[in-house]
Design a protein that fits this description.
Elements (H helix, E strand, L loop, with lengths): L9 E5 L4 H15 L7 E3 L3 H8 L5 E6 L1 H11 L6 E5 L9 E2 L3 H9 L3 E15 L2 E8 L2 E6 L6 E7 L2 E8 L1 E5 L7 H4 L12 E6 L9 E3 L5 E5 L4 E5 L5 E3 L4 E16 L4 H14 L5
Parallel strand pairs: 1-2, 1-3, 3-4, 4-5
Antiparallel strand pairs: 6-7, 6-17, 8-11, 8-15, 9-10, 9-14, 11-12, 12-13, 14-17, 15-16
Length: about 290
């Protein structure tokens, strides 16, 4: 475990589609103000606030919302090395350790030096057409290449470090981080990886007479996904899909930036969190 983390310049962001998120965020700012800190509050999508984060004005961002809010915060904060503390108002919260009823106690623990920083690998996805890069994105969870609006499966050839690995006929292929192993990859039948791993996980979606097993690649692997069908798309962390043409290529590598999360207690929190959510879901308890 790394040395204790005590922030001095904090910003609180709220997911704009959750009115209660702003209520909680304002309460957090007031709580921290009582401790002598001037803590701005705003929407996670507020451009002025985002610019201040990118300019390195803060040493911690509190994201109030759900897992989606933390994903968006990861994209914003990782390039500026700003750690994220998530407070869960959503349904699942695989990425979040703190519930809305618990944050006051955790904030006290934060300033008592009980927090530590967890580093999680991100992916970089490059869209290549005829040898030219036409786009690049960061992903904390996964990069998905799959069928578009038509129900036909797509044909995909995968390459690892320049060598062909597997050809798939499937609804799609997920290239996930360890963080993403509990997201779409898990729903597609992939394994759960510990969050500190820096491997890339390949999981096919509904493969048709193709290899149906997940493949865990070594750290530092470069994955190339070549599209051999029409009407395919790719998407990063659940964002709106980008159309891709036959013979386009999506290259996936470990990104040169890392998402940082503020954690408390033993690193074993991850397994307790995962098993709690899976047990709740399987028992039919409302989320």
């Amino acid at each position: 475990m790394s040395s204790p983390f005590i922030p001095k310049r904090i910003v609180v962001t709220a997911y704009p589609k959750m009115p209660q998120a702003f209520t909680e965020a304002e309460a957090m700012s007031a709580f921290l103000k009582d401790k002598g800190m001037d803590v701005p509050v705003g929407s996670l999508y507020d451009e002025e606030l985002r610019k201040r984060v990118k300019d390195g004005e803060f040493d911690m961002l509190i994201a109030v919302g759900g897992d989606g809010s933390v994903l968006r915060a990861g994209h914003l904060c990782a390039p500026s090395n700003v750690p994220i503390l998530g407070v869960n108002l959503g349904r699942l919260g695989f990425l979040i350790q703190i519930d809305r009823k618990e944050w006051r106690g955790y904030f006290d623990r934060l300033f008592s030096g009980e927090a530590w920083i967890e580093n999680r690998m991100m992916l970089r996805a490059e869209h290549i057409r005829a040898g030219e890069k036409i786009g690049a994105s960061l992903a904390l969870n996964e990069v998905v290449v799959g069928r578009g609006q038509y129900l036909r499966p797509v044909r995909l050839s995968t390459f690892v470090d320049g060598r062909e690995l597997i050809s798939y006929v499937a609804d799609g292929l997920i290239a996930a981080t360890a963080t993403g192993s509990t997201a779409y990859a898990l729903a597609a039948g992939g394994p759960i990886l510990p969050p500190e791993l820096r491997n890339i996980l390949l999981v096919p979606i509904a493969p048709h007479l193709s290899v149906d097993r997940a493949v865990v690649l070594s750290e530092g692997a470069t994955v190339g996904i070549v599209i051999k069908s029409e009407n395919a798309v790719f998407s990063v962390d659940g964002q709106p899909p980008t159309p891709i043409m036959e013979d386009d290529r999506v290259n996936v590598t470990a990104a040169d930036v890392t998402a940082q999360f503020v954690r408390f207690g033993n690193p074993g929190y991850f397994y307790r969190n995962v098993t709690m959510h899976i047990n709740e879901n399987s028992s039919g308890v409302p989320q």
